[in-house]
Amino acid sequence: MRKIPSQIRNEIESDNAELRESAARQLRCYPGKSALRYLKQLLTDDHAEVQYTAAASIIAIGGKAAAEIIAPLLRSQNVALRNTAIEIMAKIGKAAIDRAAELLIDRDKDIRKFGVDILEKIGSSEAKTHLVKALLDDNVNVSAAAAEALGKCGTQSAVPHLIACLDRTAWLKCAALRSLGAIGGEDAFNAIAGIDSHEESMVLFSAVSALGALGDSRGIEYLLRLLDKEDRALEPAIMQAVENIFNKSYLQKLAHVSRKIDPEKILPMLDSDNSETVRSAIGLLGLLRAENAVGDLVKLFTESNRFLLEDLEQALIQIKPYRIQPLIAIVENDREPDSVKLSALRIIGATGRREALQPLVSCLKTAGESLKTEIIRVMATLGDSEAIGPLERLLTDPSDQVKLAAIEALQTFRSPSSVAVLLSLTNDSSEQIRSAAAQSLRNYDLSNRKVEIKRLLGSQDAVSICFGLGLLTPATGPVFENDVFRLCRFEDSRVRRLAVKSVGLMENKNAVDTIIKAFSDTDETVRLAAIRAIKGPNAQQCADGLVKIANADSSDWNRYEAVQTIGRLKLTHLLPELLEMLKTCPDLVKAAIIDTLGEWGHQQSKKIMERYAISENDALRHAALKA
After folding, report:
1. Alpha-helix runs per DSSP H in 364-480
2. CATH number at residue 165
3. For residue 200, which of 174, 223, 245, 309 sits 20 to 30 Å off, Cα-Cα?
4. Which pTM value belongs to this model?
C-alpha cells in the first residue's frame, strides 16, 4: 500500500481551500484506511468544493473499508453530512450492502431508515433481499420506507411480501399498495382490487392510485363501485385513475377498429423526432398487423434506436411477418451489434418459420457466446428435426453456456441419436455440464442403455459414478438398487450423497436400512441427503434417527431439516422429544420446532407459542406468531 506523501498531509491541514481540495482529489490514488480517514475529515470542511471532492474520492476508492468508515456519520446531528454519507454509501454500491444491512438491525429507528434509503439507491438483487426483510420492522416509518423502496426498484419477487403487508397498519398498507401499483403483475392487481371498500380513506386513496398506475381495464369495475360511495375526497382520485386506465388501454381498443385505420397514414410517424410518437406508431402498427410496415420497422433496428428495440420486437411479433429475410439479414450482418441481432432472433423464434433454420446454422460459425446461445434457443423453437445434428455438434463447443443451451434445446426433440452424444459428456471438465447432461438424459428413453449405466455405476471414478447416479429415475432406480446400496458406502462423499439421494427412489426394507445408516455418515451433506430421502411409507422406521439428528447433529441446518421432516411426515408421537429439545437447541432449530407445533395444532403447545410470541428474538417471535 502506497504511503501518503507529507506534501498531501500538509495540504490537508492548509488554510488554503484550494490546496485542501487538491489533497482530497489526490487521496483517491492512495486506497487504504489512512486516506479514507483523511477524506472523512475533509467531509466536514467549511468549503463545499472540498466536501464534494472528498466525497468523490471516497466513492472512487470504494470497497467495504470505505463503507465502514462512512457509516458512523449517519449518526451525525448535521443533516447535510448525514445525507452525504447516505449518497456515498449508495454510490459505493454492492460493497456497501453488508454494512447497510447491518444498519437494519440498529436500535435507532432513524439509522434503520437510513439503511433502507441506502439499499434502495443501490437497488441490486441482494439489496432488494434485505429490503424485503425490512418490511418486518416494528417501526412503521422503516417498514413503509422499505415498501416504497421495493416499488421503486420494481422487482416482481417483492410482490408476495408487499401483499403480506396489506394485513398490517394503515400507513404500511398505503406504501405497499403504491408499490404494488408501480410493480404490476397479476398478483399485484388481484391484491389491490381485493381491498375492502370500507377501508380507511387513506388506504382507499392508495388503492385507487395504484389501479390507475397499473392501467388494467379490469380495475374500472372496482373504481366505479367506490364511486358509488359518494366519498367526495376520493372522487378526484377515482376519476383520474379511470382516465389513466382508459389512456393505457387505448391502443388495445384500436385493434377492434383496425379496418378503419390505414397503416400508410401511420408509417410517416416512424420518422418523427419525438421518440414517444415513434414508439406509439410502432405499437399501433403491431396491433394493426401491418405486413406492409415490416420493411420500415426493420430499418429502425439500429444501435442508436436500442431504446425502441423492445417495442419493435413486440410489434413484429404481433405482425408475424410472412417475409423474415430482412430479419435474417440483420443476424447475418457482421456489422450489426449483438443487441440488435438478439432482438431480431427473438422475433424469428416467435414466428416459428422453419426456413430460418439453415441461415441460423450458418450464423453459428461466427457468432459469439451470447449470440450463439440465443440462436440455439431459436433453433429449438422452430421445431425442425434438421436442427438435431447441428445442436449435437455444439456439445463440443468450448463455451459451457453454449453447451448448456444445446443440452436444453436437444431435450425439445429427445432424439435417440442424442443419447450417445449426451453420455459422452460423462467426463466433461465442468460439473455443471455433467449435471445438466445427466438431468436431461433422465427425460430420454434409456431402457436400452442399462449396460452403459451399469458401467458408470461400477466405475471407480467418482465423476463417472456421479454421472450414472444422476441418470436414475423412479422407473430405473430400482433396477440398479444393489449398485446404489453399495455406493452409499463409497469413499467419496459426493458419491455417497447422490447414492443416498437415489435410495429415495426405492421403497423397501433395504432402502430404509440404508437411509438409517446414512444418518451416521461422517459427511453432513450425506446425512442431509438421508433426511430428504425419507418418504411417508418409511417414516416410522426412521423416526429415532430423525430425533437423533435433530437433537445433536453437528450441522444446525441438518437439525433444522430433520425437525421440518418430522413435521412434514406428521410424526406426532415425537411431540415430547420436540418439547424437550426446545429447551436447549439453537434458535434455527427452535424456529423449526415452533413451526411444526403450529402445524400440528396441539392444545398443549398453545402456552409455548404465547411465550415465544413476545420473545425479543425476531425470528422466534415471527415463527410463533405465524404458528
Report:
1. 369-382, 388-393, 400-413, 416-423, 431-441, 450-457, 462-470
2. 1.25.10.10
3. 245
4. 0.51
